Amino acid sequence: MELVEHALVALAIQVFVGLSTKNWWAGALLACGYFIGRELAQAEYRWIEAFGGGLRANAPWWAPIDLRVWTKADQFADIIGPLVATATLALVMRRKGQRSRHRHPS
């Protein structure tokens, strides 16, 4: 369920930014940046607990991307879901904008 929830929240962020700025890619970037950062922070905590003796000071810079702490498919899905959803909407809106300009040239 989190995959769907994350994708829906990402789309809501994207729609808000897209309607406000007419830049659907900026909305996608903002939404995906949030979810990527969230998952990397959670991976860092997993690394600290598993290998760092519970101390953040023991974590190297690469701790969040250590594949040993990415053990479940849903950890990847929580990033991939928002990426796919927002990229799809951005592409649809880009295509819609191209059609609109083609029909009504300025």
Helix and strand layout, with pairings?
Layout: H1 2-21, H2 24-51, H3 73-103
Helix pairs in contact: 1-2, 1-3, 2-3
Transmembrane segments: 76-93
Keywords: Membrane, Transmembrane, Transmembrane helix
Protein name: DUF2809 domain-containing protein
Keyword list:
membrane, mainly alpha, 106 residues, 0% strand, transmembrane helix, transmembrane, elongated, DUF2809 domain-containing protein
What's the gist of this structure?
This is DUF2809 domain-containing protein. It contains three helices and no strands. By secondary structure, the protein is mainly alpha-helical.
Global morphology: elongated
End-to-end C-alpha gap: 45 Å
Taking all Cα atoms into account, the compactness measure Rg is 18 Å
- Could you name the ranges where pLDDT drops below 50 across 5 or more consecutive residues? none
The main pleated sheet reads as: none
| Number of distinct helices | 3
Taken together, the total number of domains comes to: 1
Structural class by sheet pairing and helices: mainly alpha
Annotation, overall tally of beta strands: 0
Q: What kind of assembly state do the chains in view correspond to?
A: single chain
- Helix share of residues? over 70%
| Whole-number mean pLDDT | 93
Q: What portion of residues belong to β-strands? A: under 5%
Q: What is the element string, with H for helices and E for strands?
A: HHH
